[in-house]
Amino acid sequence: MHVARLSLTDFRNYRSAELSFEPGATVIVGRNGQGKTNLVEAVGYLATLGSHRVSNDQALIRAGADAAVVRAVLASGGREVLLELQLNRQGANRARVNRAAAKPRDLPRYAHSVLFAPEDLAIVRGEPSVRRRLLDELLVQRIPRLAGVMADYDRVLKQRNSLLKSARARGLAAAQLPTLDIWDERLVQFGAEIIDRRLELVAELRSPLAAAYRSIVDADHAPELRPVLSIDGADPDDEGADGTTAPLAAGVSDAAAGATSPDRLPTSDRFAAALATLRRKELERGVTLAGPHRDDLLLLLNGLPAKGYASHGESWSFALALRLASAELLRRDSTTGDPVLVLDDVFAELDRLRRERLAAAIGGYEQVLITAAVLEDVPEPLAHRVVRIEAGVVVDGGAAAGEPGAASEPAREPQPEASGV
């Protein structure tokens, strides 16, 4: 699959932009702050329904505009699909597929992409929420219906937390909250599926992660992934200086790792038992203390937590290898070809040898979109097509490196008003 055309209206710093892309590598060049990352951010949003830079959609809408519109024509095997997404300041976002009304959460069924950016260093060094998001975004692309399961879980979690906070404020005991059992059942129903799917995903990521790490570093540092589950007693919020959680360091690593041996109780039973055990503490604190919203993913290099022990270069390589492993899984699953691989300002952080190794590792993908402040940072084999951006305007696009002339503007799709998506 590749992005054949991309159209933005009032997205970030773009009042309007139209671009055509070809399969293979395209480098988007511009000084910092000109808008090159905004272009690939739009591509990533269609696949993950989120930005890799901000958690709030409002930041994606151009100042002074009521809505932003992203349109993309995706091509695969001689067929094309038009995706349209409208992000609104007021009201729910809207989407269309081939001009037919759709839900935004339907878009990842068609758009598959993997984006690596400097912010991804937080996968290794940041909070558990960053690693949960890595897994969940990949899950939604592989199993789009899970977007609905995750939304249902979040809704139930908010309702349950609201009830716990109210009970705490009023000094109520569990026996005085008959509806809490109902919310527990719903939380377990949705949460157990999310946990199980994450565990399956982690198991599948291990082999391609090791291969991707070796391809970048040319060394075997034994990168490993170990789920840390709150329903088994781990508390990612109680983290030691070395990056381990307290229960994990205390010797319950097998449970926290989420092993799936046949003699273990099903996830739903363990989740329900954890809620029952924690109920008194939850009422005291007014918050749900177990579930996929409190889980983590421990990253290990040579048997040690990467968060506490890995160097900057090792952390960077680990995060990049995780993204490449994610792309490999999507490639294996897909009936529409490779995911679009996006590298946002990555090569500036690498030395010459690792630039060359990364270029070799990604050379077989159908489409690679690369952003760079300086074209010379990008290995020559990837710099055949170049798009230049200045202050939210595409000033030159699609010509081979060193060749004159800008690409012709693609034929415009009919442009309805922002409210027309």
UniProtKB/TrEMBL annotation:
<feature type="domain" description="RecF/RecN/SMC N-terminal">
    <location>
        <begin position="3"/>
        <end position="372"/>
    </location>
</feature>
<feature type="binding site">
    <location>
        <begin position="30"/>
        <end position="37"/>
    </location>
    <ligand>
        <name>ATP</name>
    </ligand>
</feature>
<dbReference type="InterPro" id="IPR027417">
    <property type="entry name" value="P-loop_NTPase"/>
</dbReference>
<feature type="region of interest" description="Disordered">
    <location>
        <begin position="400"/>
        <end position="421"/>
    </location>
</feature>
<dbReference type="InterPro" id="IPR042174">
    <property type="entry name" value="RecF_2"/>
</dbReference>
<keyword id="KW-0235">DNA replication</keyword>
<keyword id="KW-0227">DNA damage</keyword>
<comment type="function">
    <text>The RecF protein is involved in DNA metabolism; it is required for DNA replication and normal SOS inducibility. RecF binds preferentially to single-stranded, linear DNA. It also seems to bind ATP.</text>
</comment>
<dbReference type="InterPro" id="IPR018078">
    <property type="entry name" value="DNA-binding_RecF_CS"/>
</dbReference>
<keyword id="KW-0234">DNA repair</keyword>
<dbReference type="Pfam" id="PF02463">
    <property type="entry name" value="SMC_N"/>
</dbReference>
<feature type="compositionally biased region" description="Low complexity">
    <location>
        <begin position="400"/>
        <end position="409"/>
    </location>
</feature>
<dbReference type="InterPro" id="IPR003395">
    <property type="entry name" value="RecF/RecN/SMC_N"/>
</dbReference>
<comment type="similarity">
    <text>Belongs to the RecF family.</text>
</comment>
<keyword id="KW-0238">DNA-binding</keyword>
<keyword id="KW-0742">SOS response</keyword>
<keyword id="KW-0963">Cytoplasm</keyword>
<protein>
    <recommendedName>
        <fullName>DNA replication and repair protein RecF</fullName>
    </recommendedName>
</protein>
<keyword id="KW-0547">Nucleotide-binding</keyword>
<keyword id="KW-0067">ATP-binding</keyword>
<dbReference type="InterPro" id="IPR001238">
    <property type="entry name" value="DNA-binding_RecF"/>
</dbReference>
